[in-house]
Amino acid sequence: MGSRYGGDKQIDGFGPNQETILEYSVYDAIRSGFGKVVFIVRKEILDVAKAIFVPKFGSKVAVEFVIQSLDSMVPDRYVDPERKKPYGTAHALLCAKDVINEPFAVINADDFYGEEAFQMLSAFLRNEVGPQLHCMVGYAIKNVLSDYGTVSRGVCESTPEGFLTGMVERTAIARTADGIFHKDGAEKLEIAPDNPVSMNCWGFHPAVFAQTEKLWTSFLAENQGNLKSEFYIPKVVNSLIQEGIARIKILEGGKIWFGVTYGQDREYVVNALQKLHAAGVYPEKLW
C-alpha cells in the first residue's frame, strides 16, 4: 500500500515519459517471450491501473485484472471487520489462480528487476519448470538495500548446486558502517554481502496454486484474530521444500535491481532509468 513511500508507488511515474516501474518489467517480459500480464490490484486503484496500462500495451500482450481484497479467498468465518492490513504476497498469488493456467512469473509492481531476470525466467518456464520444480531469481543482498531506512528481504540458504534450502523473511535489514545487519528487538544478525535474497521474483508451475491453497486454509485458522498476520510467498516456498513437495532452483539473473521503499528513493530510481535510456537499454519511448 506504499505506507513508507507515501503514496501508490505502483502507479507513480519514474521514467523520462512518466513510465511506471512496472512498465519496464512488462517491456522486458514481452521481449523475453512472455505473452500475458495479470495485474493483482486493490479495488481502489483498479480503474486508474486500467486507464494507465491498457492503452499502452494492451494490444501487445494479453492483459487480465484481478482484485486482492480483505475478503478475497477468505471464508466468512475468518473475515474480520477490524482488519486493515492486506494479507500479503501469497494471498495475492491465490487471488490470480482462476486466470492463470500456464507456467508463470511473479514480481512486485514497484521493483525494477532488469531484462536478464526475465530472460532467465522465460528460459526456465519454457524448458525446466514442472509440478515439483519452481524457481526464483536471486539477488546479492548488498545490491538491494535502501540508503534511507530498513527493508524487508527473504534471506536465502542454498545447496552448492543452487537449490534453495530455506528462506527467512527479515523485516528490518540495513547497511551500517560495520556491515549489513538485521535487527529485531535485542537480536542483531549480520548478513554476508553476497548472500542471495528473494526480491519476490519467482517462476512457478500452476501446480503451486493447489499447494498454496492448502497452506492458506491452515494460515487463516492459526492466525484468526491476528490483524497484522501476513501470508508470504516465502512461507509457501519453505513449506514446499521442507515437506519434499517441490524444489526451488535459484537463477542467476539478478544482476540489477532498484526499487522504491521510501520517498527519498525516488530520485535514485529516476536517475537510474534515465541512464538506462541514455545507454540504449530502452528506447526513447517504451510504447
UniProtKB/TrEMBL annotation:
SUPFAM superfamilies per record: Nucleotide-diphospho-sugar transferases
Task: Kindly give the InterPro entries that the UniProt entry links to this protein.
Answer: Nucleotide-diphossugar_trans (IPR029044)
Q: What protein name does the entry list?
A: Nucleotidyl transferase
Q: Which UniProt keywords apply?
A: Transferase
State the species of origin. Cyclobacterium xiamenense
Q: What is the lineage of its organism?
A: Bacteria, Pseudomonadati, Bacteroidota, Cytophagia, Cytophagales
MF terms from GO for this chain are: transferase activity
